[in-house]
Amino acid sequence: MIAVIADVHSNLEALKKVLGKIKNSELILDAGDIVGYNAKPNECVELVKKLKIKSVLGNHDHACITGNAEDMNPIAAEAAEWTRKNLTADNMKYLKKLPEKLEIDIKGKKIVIIHGSPTNPLYGYVFPWVPDSIFAKFLQDTKTDILILGHTHVPFVKKLDGKLVVNPGSVGQPRDHRREASHAVIDPARMDARIVRTEYDIMRVSDEITGAGLPVFLAERLFSGM
Prior knowledge:
The chain has helices at 12-22, 41-50, 59-66, 74-86, 89-96, 132-142, 202-211, 216-220, and strands at 2-5, 27-30, 54-55, 101-106, 109-114, 146-148, 156-160, 163-167, 181-187, 192-198. It has 226 residues and is an alpha/beta fold. It has one domain: Purple Acid Phosphatase, chain A, domain 2. Strand 2, helix 2 and strand 3 (54-55) form a beta-alpha-beta unit. The protein is globular, with a radius of gyration of 16 Å.
């Protein structure tokens, strides 16, 4: 079984709870945005490194390593700048080495991981209500059996002609009206996938956000899942 996470966004509490569920997975993949928004960027990067989780670069990761947050709203940009100032040199170096796309072969299946979309790896939004023809084109263009995306914080599993497109949702900041952390589990042998939700101590994370001087909105939104 393959576990897939995305959009951890410096939420250490949620990440640890999710990893507790998937620790026995054969492989753990990450669709980007390890940092941003929440208050524990270094701890999250170090945990991903320690577990050798295969990750791609997300737009918040990119903003933190470049200092360019022009495409972000003011709150996201403020959080990116805070993260940039607080990341250690080693963790900054790690993020700089992340690729925008990963291709992996497992059990005879090709898996492609991208944060946004195949046409816009960092910033492309692909929601579950996108027409199936678009998903089919993505699968065709990437020549893959399983396409993994992130960025929207909205989880879904799409099955088309025996292939899969999966967004695991967000570990650190869900936006589908549910407050639990979200991840996905994929069975490549059966070409099947499911979304899994995990409760965590939101109040603790909220207190960390406000205590760090990050925007209060980022703490409040965790309780509504939006």
